[in-house]
Specification:
Elements lengths: L1 H35 L1 E6 L2 E6 L3 H8 L2 H32 L6 H14 L3 H8 L10 H9 L4 H12 L1 H6 L2 H11 L4 H9 L4 H29 L5 H10 L5 H27 L9
Antiparallel strand pairs: 1-2
Length: 284
Amino acid sequence: MKIKRHTIYGYLFILPWLIGFLLLVMWPMAQSFYYSLNSMRITPVGLQFRYVGLNNYLDVWLKDMFFLQELLGFALNTLLRVPVIVVFALIIAVLLNQQIKFKGTFRTIFFLPVIVASGPVINQLIDQGATSIPLVNQDIIIGLLAQIFPLFIASVVADLFSQIIVILWYSGVQILIFLAVLQKIDPSLYEAAKIDGGSSWECFWKITLPTIKPIVLINMVYTLVSLANSGQNPIIELIYANMFDATRGYGFASAMAWMYAIIIGIMLIIMALAFRERKTKRAF
């Protein structure tokens, strides 16, 4: 009886989340999928639907040259930004996990941009040049990189330098996640390693990194999803632009959004397979 009561309490506890998920996530997703199968027009009497099947999905690839271009740019940016953000978050988390004064203040400083620099605020900061390093000349970087890599790769790497502050602002949540798992590591492991002559560097590679390896994957997934849904993502802006376009509209934009979501899902699966923790076979 007590187990059943606890089960009921558990369902009641998550009930607000379930209602919010069904109304604010599942219903809009189903609605957008229905839109993607139709050609929609806004008229004085309301929305008009004309079923077109998968034509909108085909048009995303065949008639919109910007989608593929922005998608390739996003893939290259993600390939560079995700490791930078995760590695930076790990370094800061390891430093903040040490016995230092004002530890709570430093944690607040690194997490503060997650709260402050969002939406219109970060757009204003970018427009005013507050998110770039003044001493970094992007043209010089592109010129040097263009001698080694193709121009489009050089441009992406140079853009990484020009927006390095914005990129590092995305590391606040990852720092907290790393800190949580670092504090769960048994200190006796480090004590035993140091008794055997292990240095701090060896302790990091032999104890810390293997212990937090699953959390590294979690932070990489979180970072990818965060970048994919960022307001500074050109693909998101392209979807908005097509939504209010007179010749394309909601149906085309919904199909583009679904294609984008599927591609992000494939990227997440590839990331999970590449960095998953492999089980070692035991010898009997």
